Amino acid sequence: MATYQITTTVLGVLFAAVILYLIRGDRLYLRLGLFWFALAMLAVLLGVWPRMLDQVADQLGIRYSPTLLLVCAVAVLFIKALHADMVNTRIERQVRRLNQSLALLHIKSQQAASEKS
């Protein structure tokens, strides 16, 4: 096994171990952790069988196989950023609604207190 294969495999295994540690310590949601764990396993696969990337690139008509890896990485980053923005928008909407509900409850409690007086 070539040095770059060993390095890629070891980095993938270490990355997977860190992801599992973060999930176990409740520092990373399971759903998000599964995404990162899958990427770590892909790194391990490409480390063990680097010709797999060459074969997929040949099937797609890509002459320089690292280009496929870079295009896929950019696509995954775009999708991940879009997903993060969607989650952020949902959370901001929920916070805004909670603030409005809290303000209404505060007004009602002030009205009830002033009616008792």
Automatic annotation (TrEMBL):
<protein>
    <recommendedName>
        <fullName>DUF2304 domain-containing protein</fullName>
    </recommendedName>
</protein>
<keyword id="KW-0472">Membrane</keyword>
<keyword id="KW-1133">Transmembrane helix</keyword>
<keyword id="KW-0812">Transmembrane</keyword>
<feature type="transmembrane region" description="Helical">
    <location>
        <begin position="6"/>
        <end position="23"/>
    </location>
</feature>
<dbReference type="Pfam" id="PF10066">
    <property type="entry name" value="DUF2304"/>
</dbReference>
<feature type="transmembrane region" description="Helical">
    <location>
        <begin position="28"/>
        <end position="49"/>
    </location>
</feature>
<dbReference type="InterPro" id="IPR019277">
    <property type="entry name" value="DUF2304"/>
</dbReference>
<feature type="transmembrane region" description="Helical">
    <location>
        <begin position="61"/>
        <end position="83"/>
    </location>
</feature>
